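Write out C-alpha cells for FAD-dependent oxidoreductase.
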Amino acid sequence: MSEALVADVIVIGAGIIGAACARSLAQRGLQVLVLDAGWHGATAAGMGHLLVLDDNPAELALSQYSLRRWRELASSLPETCAWRNNGTLWLAANAEEMAVAHGKYLNLLAHGEACELVGRAALRQREPELREGLEGGLLIKGDGILYAPAAARWMLDAALIRQQRAQVSEVDGRRVRLADGRWLCAEAVVLANGIQATELCPELPIEPKKGHLLITDRCPNRVSHTLVELGYVTSAHTASGPSVACNIQPRPTGQLFIGASRQFGTVDPQVEGWMLAKMLRRATDYLPGLARLNGIRAWTGFRAASPDGLPLVGQHPQRQGLWLAVGHEGLGVTTAPATADLLVAQLFNEAPPLAPQPYLPQRFLGEPAHA
C-alpha cells in the first residue's frame, strides 16, 4: 500500500475500551488517531460498576487484574469521573444463595481478594433499607463505581492522541475507509467499537444484549454499597430469554442507578415499559423504599456479547494488522485497563501481564492462514 501513514495506530471507537487502548499506546510514544462515529454506545449507557467476577478462572483473572489497575489510576482521575471504592454487596435471599456466597468467598479469598461474609443481622446493619428476611451476603471490598464517559474522555486527553468524528465503512488490514470514501493508513488498526464491530467484521461472533437502566431522584435514606442479588449468578441471567436481576448502585449525587435487564434478539433502542416494570419490581423486592422515589430517566444500551462471555483481545488471525478489543458484554468498564495492557503487550511482542490464551480471537476465528 502506498498511502501515507496518518498515525502509528488507528483506534476505531472512543468508548472506554478504545480510550484505554489509545492511552496505553500513547504512553508508549505512539501517535494514535481515534475515530468515533458518535453513536454513544455501551460506555455512555452503562452503570460503571467496577467489580471482580469469578464465574470462571479467565473472567476472574481479567477482572481482578483490571480492578488493581483502576485502583492504581484512582488518584489521577478527576472528580468528574466519580470514582468511589464503595464495594459490592452480593445479596443472598435464601440458604441456597448463601451457600453460593460462601463458595465465592472461599474462591476470592484464595485469590487474595478482600471480602467478607455477612450474616442476617450484619446485613441489616450495613444496609438498613434492605427488606427483612434476607439470608445474608458477601461483601467484595475492592469493587467500586465510575462515571465511564468522563473516564474515557480523560484517557483520550493526551498529547499523542488525536480524535476525529468519522464513521468507518470498511477495514482492510492496516487501512480503514471512511464513509466519505477516504482511505486512512497506519501501522496497526485497533477495532474497539462494541456492537458496531460486526458491521466491519461480519465474522465476529458478537451478539447485542439489550439492557435497561433507570436513575432516581436523590434518595433520603443512604445506600452505601452497590447491591446485587446472588440470583444474578445463580439463575436470573442464565436463561436465554429476557431476564432481570436486582442491581442497585448509589451514585455520589445521592441518586440510585437501578438495573439490570437482559434481552437477546433485538436492536430496538426504545425503553420497553413491560421490561422496565419487571426490573423495578425486582429491585423494590430487595429495597422496598425505592417505591417512594421518582424515576428521573430511563434508557437502554447494548452490550457486545461473545459466545463464551469473554472478550476477543489480540490480532485478527485472518486480517494482518487488524487488532481486536471487542466482546466485553457488561464488563467493558471493569476490564478496560486489562484489555489495553493485554493488547499492547501482544502488539509489542512482550510478555503479557496475564495469560492471553482465553481471550485470543483464534478461539472463534481460527488460526492464522500461515500457521
